[in-house]
Amino acid sequence: MGGMASSVDTAGAVLFILWAVAMWAAVAVLAYANRGAVKPWLYKTSVGLIGLGVVGQLGHFQEHVSQAGYWITHPMSPAWMTPWANSLSRGMGQIDTTKPSLGMEILHLTGNFIFLAGLVGIVLITKRATGQLQSRKWAKMGVWMQGIHGIEHIVLTASVALGAKHAIGLSTWFGTIPPGPALTTYRVWWHFVANLVGTGILAMSLYHLWREKRAVKAGYGTDSAELGQDAASGAGPTATGAAKNTGSKSADPCPECHQVPAVEAVEAAEPALAGRAG
């Protein structure tokens, strides 16, 4: 985490922060656009937002898994960070080089808000679907939990930025645990468990979103085109329904032989019968 920041560190930090900013800009645009009529780009943009959130959380969660794994083998050592996280932390720490832990706090704050934006994306993409969707239920649960966890990171970052000797938050027992193995142990496992639960909620939401994708797509009108293609190709639910409607056209059995004439024969006889009746 220490050392001078290189140009690579700076570029990585800037790009990572821009990633988070772009995702929240997309959240704002989607939330506003979803208030009106369906637009073709809404569905695909929501999918992209969710995808970026998933990628971000996979990287974020592996960092906490790595930290927990390092603690198991080095319980008395300071908290460990992966090389890429150290690089981003050094880049972000240039905001105020007099506060060595500020870069690390900004890094985790940014990572949590990328994750939160992805969860909000699931809530937004399911907004137009009818009925109670399990994916939306899980995503809302994740938004609440990750929102609270995000507030924790805001407090931790703000306390360091404002000059506190130690970060103040739930994961530091509001700054009362002195630096050392006890604080490292508590903080490493607190954030690991929080991210483990949050990632599990995301996984459940994505699982149900996959199962409920037809209902979600229907809210954006994307299924209508698929059904039209089914009917034209003679396959799928629309074509099957049309075949059933055609097959349901039957004739009354003959009163003498008790046999039902073929549908084609009945249709061919209808014009002649109509002529006689005329």
Order of helices and strands: HHHHHHHHHH
Name the poorly predicted regions: 224-252, 255-278
Sheet with the most strands, sense and barrel status: none
The beta-strand count equals: 0
**Share of helix among residues?**
over 70%
In whole angstroms, the N-to-C terminal distance is: 97 Å
- What would the average pLDDT be, to the nearest integer? 85
Task: Please give a structural write-up.
The chain is mainly alpha-helical. It has ten helices and no strands.
SSE topology sketch:
Blueprint: H1 7-33, H2 40-73, H3 83-92, H4 102-125, H5 134-161, H6 181-211, H7 213-218, H8 222-233, H9 236-247, H10 263-277
Main attributes?
about 280 residues; disordered C terminus; mainly alpha; single chain; elongated
